[in-house]
Amino acid sequence: MENKFYTLPKMPYEYNALEPFISEEQLRLHHSKHHQAYVNGANAILELLDKARSEGADLDIKSTLKALSFNIGGHILHSLFWNNLASVERNGSPSEALNEAIINEFGSFERFKKEFIQAAISVEGSGWAALSFCRQTKRPVIMQIEKHNVNVYPMFRILMVLDVWEHAYYLDYKNERSKYVDAFWNVINWNEVNQRLENIKIG
Ligand code: MN3
Fold first, then answer.
1. What's the whole-number mean pLDDT along residues 75-93?
2. How far is the CA of 123 from the centre of ligand 1 (A)?
3. Distance (Å) from CA 29 to ligand 1 centroid
4. 22-203, what's its fold?
5. How close is the Cα of 40 to the center of ligand 1, in Å?
6. Which of 91, 104, 145, 170 has a CA positioned 20 to 30 A from the CA of residue 67?
7. Which of 175-182's residues contact partners 24+ apart within 8 Å by CB, and which partners?
8. 151 pLDDT more than 70
9. What pLDDT band is residue 3 in, cutting at 50, 70 and 90?
């Protein structure tokens, strides 16, 4: 039977694989507690919806859907995030196609990196920076996501995300978000980012 609920995905590497850039303790907590909380949150709301529908009960639809969007967003973004990270030994490099797309859009890889870093550092409160891709214009676009679900461009495919919630880095970097954002570039799984771009062309 198809599982109608979300599950916490298994990490594609050990919790210590991203050291020294992201510590074992930080990554374990982030995956096993924080990501799990979004999975549980989304499932609890789905159960609430199922129950209310089967009983014919009324719901506060507005607040329920707002919470559902937040928790599903958290689950999906974290699932993408773990897979677009890799240990220094396994992270590869941007493919020719990815490089070309980035250079066509931003002028240079350095310019892309600068804008992505600025997007990540300047998220108001908690959120994400994401490199996404518009299939209509064939242009890569940076998304600056607040929380897990605000400022998301509908239907854009996500190539790469960076979690800049404090829970992602506080144990390792305290309040210094920019140091964490700089460290991220050492553990990007370019093989995965390349593949996501490739999948768009096929799909
Ligand atoms: Mn997080």
1. 96
2. 14
3. 10
4. minor pseudopilin epsh fold (3.55.40)
5. 14
6. 170
7. 177/120, 177/121, 178/117, 178/121, 181/117, 181/120, 181/121, 182/117
8. yes
9. confident
Q: What are the sequence ranges of the domains in the chain?
A: 22-203
- pLDDT above 90 for 2: no
What is the three-class DSSP state of 159? strand
Residue with token string 């460290």: 183
Return d(Cα 123, Cα 116) in angstroms, integer.
11
Q: Indicate the pTM of the whole model.
A: 0.96
Residue that the structure tokens 């490099």 belong to? 93
Angle (nearest 5°) at CA 18 between 12 and 23: 115
CA of 57 to the centre of ligand 1 (A): 34
- State how far the Cα of 77 lies from the Cα of 160, in Å rounded to an integer: 10
pLDDT (average), residues 156-181: 98
